[in-house]
């Protein structure tokens, strides 16, 4: 079974700073997908970024980028020029390449951006 | 277009009562997922639908939990004889197909269930 671990329950940074959220996972699969989802107080989960394990290039989406280290089974999220609207819970998630497409989530990191 | 919607937004019930939670996926999405978010267990998968069939029910915690989907659209999650440990936020998500590996799942706002 796959497991996802987020070791930082809470983080807090000042607006405009860069912050990195950590995620590690455990799997015997060779191909899979990894995701970062954001959950603001409204509760609605929003996809931030996704990474295919067979792609070596790290995914980027505007101010969001990942550092994917397949051998280390690490998938960290970097938020550059952080904004107040980035305040939310952030969840790292794993999905198998084939078969059941359910997401396996980490415990989440509560990120607060201070003005 | 409209996103995933869920109703009710909040539900308070008494222990032992049955509850029904509803999910309306994005129009045309054939895959639908239910997850549960609780303080003790985090975010956990409950059940997955492809069309009206449920090939993966492995996450349902007990036989008090059931779900159905009709017309390849709306899904209802039913919890019978609710217990206090059922208190959680129930999230629904949909994706265009389940055959496309790694498809993004689009989530609804969830139903917060409180069992007194």
Describe this structure in words.
The complex is a heterodimer of chains A (115) and B (116). Chain A has 115 residues and is mostly beta strands. Chain A is 0% helix and 52% strand. Chain A is built from no helices and twelve strands. Chain A has strands at residues 3-5, 10-14, 19-21, 24-26, 32-39, 46-52, 60-61, 64-69, 74-79, 88-96, 104-105, 109-114. In chain A, a hairpin with a 2-residue loop joins strand 7 (60-61) and strand 8 (64-69). The mean pLDDT of chain A is 94. Chain B is an all-beta fold and 116 residues long. Helices cover 0% and strands 51% of the residues of chain B. In chain B, the strands form two sheets. In chain B, strands 2, 4, 5, 6, 9, 10 and 11 form a seven-stranded mixed sheet that branches. Chain B has a four-stranded antiparallel sheet with strand order 1-3-8-7, with no helix packed on it. The relative contact order of chain B is 0.32. Classes of the chains: A mainly beta (115), B mainly beta (116). Chain A binds chain B through residues 33, 35, 37, 42-47, 50, 52, 91, 95, 97-98, 100-108, and chain B through 3, 31, 33, 35, 42-45, 48, 56, 58-59, 89, 91, 93, 95, 98, 101-110, 112.
């Amino acid at each position: 079974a796959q497991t996802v671990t987020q070791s930082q329950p809470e983080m807090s940074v000042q607006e405009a700073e860069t912050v990195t959220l950590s995620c590690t996972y455990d799997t015997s699969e060779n191909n899979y997908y990894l995701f970062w989802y954001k959950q603001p107080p409204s509760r609605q989960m929003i996809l931030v970024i996704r990474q295919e394990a067979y792609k070596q290039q790290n995914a980027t989406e505007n101010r969001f980028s990942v550092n994917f280290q397949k051998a280390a089974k690490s998938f960290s999220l970097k938020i550059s020029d952080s904004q107040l609207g980035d305040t939310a819970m952030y969840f790292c998630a794993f999905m198998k390449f084939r078969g059941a497409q359910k997401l396996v989530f980490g415990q989440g990191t509560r990120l607060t951006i201070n003005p | 277009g409209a996103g995933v919607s869920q109703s009710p937004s909040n539900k308070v019930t008494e222990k032992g009562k049955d509850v029904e939670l509803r999910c309306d996926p994005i129009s045309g999405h054939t895959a639908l997922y239910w997850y549960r978010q609780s303080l003790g267990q985090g975010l956990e998968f409950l059940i997955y639908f492809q069309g009206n069939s449920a090939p993966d029910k492995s996450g349902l915690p007990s036989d008090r939990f059931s779900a159905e989907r009709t017309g390849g659209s709306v899904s209802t999650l039913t919890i019978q004889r609710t217990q206090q440990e059922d208190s959680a936020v129930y999230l629904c998500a949909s994706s265009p197909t389940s055959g496309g590996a790694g498809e993004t799942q689009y989530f609804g706002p969830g139903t917060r269930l409180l069992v007194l």
